[in-house]
Amino acid sequence: MASPGQFWVEVIGIAAALLTTTSFLPQALRIWRNRSARDVSLTMYLMMFAGQILWLAYGVVIGSVSLILANSTALMLVGSVLLLKLRDRAPSAAL
Amino acid sequence: MASPGQFWVEVIGIAAALLTTTSFLPQALRIWRNRSARDVSLTMYLMMFAGQILWLAYGVVIGSVSLILANSTALMLVGSVLLLKLRDRAPSAAL
Predict the structure, then answer these.
(1) Which residue among B21, B44, B58 places its CB closest to the CB of A23?
(2) ipTM
């Protein structure tokens, strides 16, 4: 089991994970509300999505609870931004 | 020193770090070129900046080379997006 020191290290990691992970939520909401993702970079979100799959693998191998929680949640939120961006690029069905 | 297994684990971590870190570069370039950051969320980049400071601290404590390299570089790139977004929000000097 984890020592008290390891516990506090994971508290820092989980706080970091919560901030960086949930940061994608206001971005997804902004695109949803404004119905525009013009200034949002598609390249960024494709790279971020691929990178977070690798971070998740890294977290599993080194046994970092913070990395696993952060990146599995972030993958869903980044995936949402990616879908909203792709929807914005797609031509309208009619008119 | 690291065992061969640890070496390959760090290769995955460094690949993950390169992708997620450098992903902010095309976003910064897009804002720069379009001269607009309207659809980019300020809340996202404030949370991301604060969170990456904590990830950097976490990486230092657990001794993860990948986390340290990723988050110190990302802090600079996320800081660039943040500055470009704040510049876009600032009222023009004249007219």
Answers:
(1) B44
(2) 0.83
